[in-house]
Amino acid sequence: MSTNCRYEFQLKHFGFKDCKPRRFQTLQWSRSKFLFVIYRLFTFTFQLGWMIAGCIGRSDSYFFKLSNWCMFYSTIYYGFACISAIHGLFVNNEKNEKKKSSATCGYYNNALTQSTEEIKKIKLSISESIDVEATQNIESDNDDLRWFHRITWIFHTIALDTVVLVTAVYWIAVFPTEAKEDQDIHGYAKHAMNIGLLFIDMLFVNTPVRFLHTIYMILACVCYSVFLVIIHFVGLESSVYGFTNFDENPGLAAGVLALVTFVGSWIFHSLWFGIYHFRWFLSRSCHVE
Predict the structure, then answer these.
(1) What is the pLDDT of residues 12-53, one digit of tens each?
(2) 64: nearest Cα among 186, 229, 219, 217
(3) Please, which of 12, 84, 92, 114 could form a disulfide with 118 given CB 3.0 to 4.6 Å?
(4) Is residue 61 predicted with pLDDT exceeding 60?
(5) What is the domain partition of the chain in residue ranges?
(6) Closest alpha carbon to 194 in 58, 49, 30, 60
(7) Average pLDDT for residues 88-115, to the nearest whole number?
(8) Considering Cα of 89, then 92, then 95, then 97, what sign does the dihedral take?
(9) What are phi and psi of 25, to 5 degrees?
(10) Tens of pLDDT along 127-159?
(11) How many C-beta neighbours within 10 Å does residue 125 have?
(12) CB atoms < 10 A from the CB of 271, how many?
């Protein structure tokens, strides 16, 4: 894994090159796929439960807030991450068994023509050589990411970057003036628990972070900005946040959205990019391959 600028700023890294499916199938600190599936099932069901609980009994304006979009992004990420982990556990294990079976037959067919002493040596080496051969064959057969790996990676980026924006805006600009009756456990889940879970996830999972993937956060910000403009012109809501009031100060609203989209996105993503490489440094220092 290289960390130099020449590597990161290759055009192919706007996409999904130089990454194997196993990066979405294990933890950074453990090769156990079963343990990873348990972790993914827990995070997905936990996040899904909070998102559903937060939606129940809410008005239409509930869906205007970016914090609720962020919960939705996080749930999509955890959902597809869970699919990727389960696929890695069952599909690759099945292929592994087939490779082992094929390799075993080959070894024993060759052994029939050997002497007794040579047969004993072959038997002793079979368990190690079969595992190595099967693993190498599986990795070469599965170099390309599947569609669910790519969706996982995209929403991993969007969820991480959006949660930093949402958390910062809420605690700096919204919370000090928010009415006490509006501060409930669901608010804390969106503006504290969500970033905590994603931070823990970043420290333990094996999913890479590409600097040029900031483009996906920018696209997400553009979509939300367009959404705010639409609900303004159709008369649903013109001031979701005080600093995005299209009625009183459309210039300020447009400027804030543009600043967050084209400047803030790079800043938010740079934070996670640094954490990712710190995780990778710790992993290498601890000799975790």
Answers:
(1) 999 998 899 999 999 999 889 999 999 999 999 999 999 998
(2) 229
(3) 114
(4) yes
(5) 5-285
(6) 49
(7) 56
(8) negative
(9) -125, -5
(10) 444 444 444 444 433 458 999 999 999 999 999
(11) 10
(12) 12
